[in-house]
Amino acid sequence: MATALRLISRGLRKNTFVPLYNSCSFLHTHSTSFGYKEVKEEEKSRLVGNVFTSVATNYDLMNDLMSGGMHRLWKEKFVFSFDWDVAFRILESINDVGRRALRDQDDNVPEETQIFVCDINSNMLTVGKKRAQERGFGEDKSLVWVEGDAEELKFEDNSMDGYTIAFGIRNVTHIEKALAEAFRVLKRGGRFLCLELSHVELPIFKELYDFYSFSVIPVIGELVAGDRESYQYLVESVRRFPTQEKFGSMIAEAGFQNVEYENLVGGVVAIHSGIKF
User: Do the Cβ atoms of 137 and 106 come closer than 8 Å?
Assistant: First the structure.
């Protein structure tokens, strides 16, 4: 087995983050956001679960339509930002990245590597397994499928060389709990890497992006998937997610150091990175 993951940050903007506020006060209330709605904390997991149960079968198609196929490029960029050749136990919270790593980074992924694909939604796990089988990874022992909650991971302390999460952390009820769990399960020297839809600040581009998000995406969801509400939630959840700077400070507050981020497409998505020392 490998020693702690050696860390190389490739092309991410170098920002030093310190905690800007107490993230517990940001999220520990009796209610939380579900898009623009305020719901009881205990209700959010069920509502988000309903969304992903609804969208699971059309997940890849809708992502292609909504992003013009660019989500595939974002995920490839994300995959290539990680040092797969020196990580032997990797936790992937929300499935999709590990399969791409085995496909695109096959020569760099050691044979003994295990990628634990963890998702709270059984329907999304089923779709992930099906996609893996279609791409020839159905019998690959490197992929270990686990149904689990990012806020309460079923893994031991200091057991993972790396942690990746793509387009998932904005859907948890308590972001700070998911970050604390990521920090807990990582070994010293382990790297946290997060790909998430984020905030556009360029004035003209922001106006166009907002129009597309609120006026087009829900219509696509209704026409293609027969589900306008889930895609309305998607758009609203992005707007309620912390800005790049605030999310960076939350990662730092969880204990990570060398926290950085890189905007893609003007901030439509961002890759955040941190190291556990």
Answer: no
pLDDT tens digits along 182-214? 999 999 999 999 999 999 999 999 999 999 999
Joined tokens for residue 132: 């893996």
For the chain, the farthest-separated pair of C-alpha atoms sits apart, in whole angstroms, at: 51
Residue 111, Cβ density class (10 Å: 0-12 exposed, 13-18 middle, ≥19 buried): exposed
Total number of residues shown for the chain: 277
Residue 159 amino acid letter: S
Look at residue 81 and give its three-state secondary structure.
coil
pLDDT band, residue 19 (cuts 50/70/90): very low
Q: What percent of the chain stands above pLDDT 70?
A: 83
Q: Cα separation of 120 and 181, whole Å? A: 14
Q: How many H-runs (helices) and E-runs (strands) does the chain carry? A: 11, 9
Residue 228 lies in a domain: no
* Per-residue pLDDT at 88 exceeds 60: yes
Backbone angles phi, psi at 198, to 5 degrees: -135, -145
Alpha helices in 106-145 (DSSP H): 122-134
- How many domains does the chain divide into? 1
Task: Convert 14-40 into a string of H (helix), E (strand) and C (coil).
Answer: CCCCCCCCCHHHHHCCCEEEECCEEEE
CATH of the domain at 269: 3.40.50.150
* Contacts (Cβ under 8 Å, ≥6 apart) of 254: 23, 176, 179, 180, 182, 183, 274
Can you give the residue range of the structural domain that contains 173?
23-198+244-275
